[in-house]
Amino acid sequence: MNDDNRISLKLEIGDRSYSLRVTYTEEQKLLKAAQQINEKLKQYRGRYSDKDMQDFFAMTALQLASRVMELEEKQQPQQNDDFVDATREISNELESYLKSIQRS
Protein backbone atom coordinates (compact mmCIF):
# COMPACT_ATOMS: atom_id res chain seq x y z
CA MET A 1 0.00 0.00 0.00
CA ASN A 2 1.21 3.47 -0.82
CA ASP A 3 2.71 5.23 2.20
CA ASP A 4 0.83 8.41 1.19
CA ASN A 5 -2.41 6.75 2.29
CA ARG A 6 -1.11 6.19 5.80
CA ILE A 7 -1.28 8.32 8.90
CA SER A 8 0.76 8.29 12.09
CA LEU A 9 -1.01 6.80 15.08
CA LYS A 10 0.23 6.70 18.65
CA LEU A 11 -1.33 3.98 20.76
CA GLU A 12 -1.05 3.72 24.53
CA ILE A 13 -1.22 0.09 25.65
CA GLY A 14 -0.45 -0.70 29.24
CA ASP A 15 2.27 1.66 30.31
CA ARG A 16 3.83 1.95 26.87
CA SER A 17 3.40 4.01 23.71
CA TYR A 18 3.48 2.53 20.24
CA SER A 19 3.83 4.63 17.10
CA LEU A 20 2.35 3.09 13.95
CA ARG A 21 1.68 4.06 10.35
CA VAL A 22 -1.84 2.94 9.46
CA THR A 23 -4.63 3.60 6.99
CA TYR A 24 -7.68 5.61 8.00
CA THR A 25 -9.78 2.44 8.08
CA GLU A 26 -7.29 0.70 10.37
CA GLU A 27 -7.12 3.67 12.74
CA GLN A 28 -10.52 3.24 14.38
CA LYS A 29 -10.13 -0.54 14.69
CA LEU A 30 -6.73 -0.18 16.34
CA LEU A 31 -7.92 2.53 18.72
CA LYS A 32 -10.84 0.35 19.76
CA ALA A 33 -8.58 -2.71 20.12
CA ALA A 34 -6.14 -0.75 22.29
CA GLN A 35 -9.04 0.46 24.44
CA GLN A 36 -10.27 -3.11 24.95
CA ILE A 37 -6.79 -4.31 25.85
CA ASN A 38 -6.35 -1.47 28.34
CA GLU A 39 -9.72 -2.26 29.94
CA LYS A 40 -8.75 -5.92 30.38
CA LEU A 41 -5.35 -4.95 31.79
CA LYS A 42 -7.06 -2.64 34.28
CA GLN A 43 -9.43 -5.44 35.34
CA TYR A 44 -6.53 -7.83 35.92
CA ARG A 45 -4.54 -5.20 37.82
CA GLY A 46 -7.51 -4.70 40.13
CA ARG A 47 -7.97 -8.42 40.77
CA TYR A 48 -4.38 -9.60 41.02
CA SER A 49 -2.16 -7.07 42.75
CA ASP A 50 0.60 -9.64 43.29
CA LYS A 51 1.27 -10.12 39.54
CA ASP A 52 3.37 -8.04 37.17
CA MET A 53 2.44 -6.36 33.90
CA GLN A 54 3.74 -9.25 31.79
CA ASP A 55 1.27 -11.58 33.54
CA PHE A 56 -1.56 -9.16 32.83
CA PHE A 57 -0.60 -9.00 29.16
CA ALA A 58 -0.45 -12.80 28.96
CA MET A 59 -3.88 -13.21 30.60
CA THR A 60 -5.36 -10.52 28.36
CA ALA A 61 -3.90 -12.13 25.23
CA LEU A 62 -5.26 -15.51 26.28
CA GLN A 63 -8.73 -14.14 26.96
CA LEU A 64 -8.93 -12.19 23.69
CA ALA A 65 -7.55 -15.11 21.64
CA SER A 66 -10.11 -17.40 23.25
CA ARG A 67 -12.88 -14.97 22.27
CA VAL A 68 -11.64 -14.84 18.67
CA MET A 69 -11.68 -18.64 18.53
CA GLU A 70 -15.26 -18.72 19.85
CA LEU A 71 -16.35 -16.27 17.18
CA GLU A 72 -14.57 -18.23 14.44
CA GLU A 73 -16.27 -21.45 15.58
CA LYS A 74 -19.68 -19.77 15.50
CA GLN A 75 -18.99 -18.37 12.04
CA GLN A 76 -17.75 -21.67 10.55
CA PRO A 77 -21.17 -23.43 10.37
CA GLN A 78 -22.67 -20.36 8.67
CA GLN A 79 -19.91 -20.39 6.06
CA ASN A 80 -20.51 -24.11 5.46
CA ASP A 81 -24.26 -23.53 5.13
CA ASP A 82 -23.66 -20.75 2.62
CA PHE A 83 -21.36 -23.01 0.61
CA VAL A 84 -23.89 -25.87 0.62
CA ASP A 85 -26.70 -23.51 -0.42
CA ALA A 86 -24.63 -22.05 -3.26
CA THR A 87 -23.64 -25.54 -4.41
CA ARG A 88 -27.27 -26.68 -4.41
CA GLU A 89 -28.32 -23.61 -6.38
CA ILE A 90 -25.63 -24.19 -9.00
CA SER A 91 -26.54 -27.87 -9.18
CA ASN A 92 -30.23 -27.05 -9.69
CA GLU A 93 -29.43 -24.52 -12.40
CA LEU A 94 -27.15 -27.00 -14.14
CA GLU A 95 -29.82 -29.70 -13.93
CA SER A 96 -32.43 -27.34 -15.42
CA TYR A 97 -30.06 -26.36 -18.20
CA LEU A 98 -29.26 -30.00 -19.05
CA LYS A 99 -32.97 -30.88 -19.13
CA SER A 100 -33.67 -27.97 -21.45
CA ILE A 101 -30.90 -29.12 -23.81
CA GLN A 102 -32.24 -32.68 -23.86
CA ARG A 103 -35.70 -31.42 -24.87
CA SER A 104 -34.32 -29.46 -27.78
Give your account of this protein's structure:
The structure is a single chain. The chain has 104 residues and is an alpha+beta fold. Helices cover 72% and strands 15% of the residues. It is built from two helices and two strands. The protein has helices at 24-47, 53-103; strands at residues 6-13, 16-23. It has a two-stranded antiparallel ribbon with strand order 1-2. Helix 1 crosses helix 2 (53-103). It is elongated and about 80 Å long. The mean pLDDT is 85.
Main attributes?
104 residues, alpha+beta, two-stranded antiparallel sheet, 2 strands
Sheet with the most strands? 2 strands, antiparallel
- Assembly level: single chain
The run of helices and strands is: EEHH
Strand adjacency order, main sheet: 1-2
**What's the total helix number?**
2
Look at the helices and sheets and give the structural class: alpha+beta
> Can you give the helix content as a percent range?
over 70%
General form: elongated
Concise structural overview:
By secondary structure, the protein is an alpha+beta fold. The chain has helices at 24-47, 53-103, and strands at residues 6-13, 16-23.
Task: Describe the secondary-structure layout.
Blueprint: E1 6-13, E2 16-23, H1 24-47, H2 53-103
Antiparallel strand pairs: 1-2
Helix pairs in contact: 1-2
